Amino acid sequence: MSFSKKDRKLQSKSGIIFPTSTFTEPLAMAIAGALKEEFGNTPSALKTIAQLTRSNERAVRNWFEGKNSPSAENLVILMRNSDLILRTVLALADRQDLVVAVGLAGLRRQLMDAVAAIDGLPMDASDHGSDDVDDAGT
Predict the structure, then answer these.
(1) Cβ distance 57 to 50 under 8 Å?
(2) Which of 22, 81, 119, 128 is deepest in the core (most CB within 10 A)?
(3) What pLDDT, in 10s, does the model give residues 25-61?
(4) Which among 57, 99, 55, 93 has a CA at the least distance from the CA of 74?
(5) Is the pTM for the entire model greater than 0.70?
(6) Of the candidates 39, 65, 33, the residue with the CA atom closest to the CA atom of residue 53
(7) Cβ–Cβ < 8 Å for 57, 46
(8) By CB neighbour count within 10 A (0-12 exposed, 13-18 middle, 19+ buried), where does 61 fall?
(9) Going by C-beta distance under 8 Å and a sequence separation of 6 or more, which residues neighbour residue 60?
């Protein structure tokens, strides 16, 4: 049986180059790096992100591998829950002024948490520390 002239060609014309999978979007790679740094690259991190965004675990795995970017809706959810992802998106948007503001807000929260932890110490532990300082001065 011979092929007719109307049959599909199995080979592409010479000179036509198909896109390769080596090209990845800067957003996908940046989000992948931020996700790995923030949540780690473990199966539990994938499950956590999948539950957080109500996405399929396979889709989340593609985000971690930099193959795909999250949808706008999922990206907003991730930015809401991670300052690192928020700073990454702002840096990609060339908004360095806002990156600094987000960093300061994060430092403020950490400082408030530290003060709350200090205030939560038992009074006996804080009294011993102040007695040592008073005794050293006299």
Answers:
(1) yes
(2) 81
(3) 789 999 999 999 999 988 899 999 999 999 999 999 9
(4) 55
(5) no
(6) 39
(7) yes
(8) middle
(9) 46, 49, 50, 53
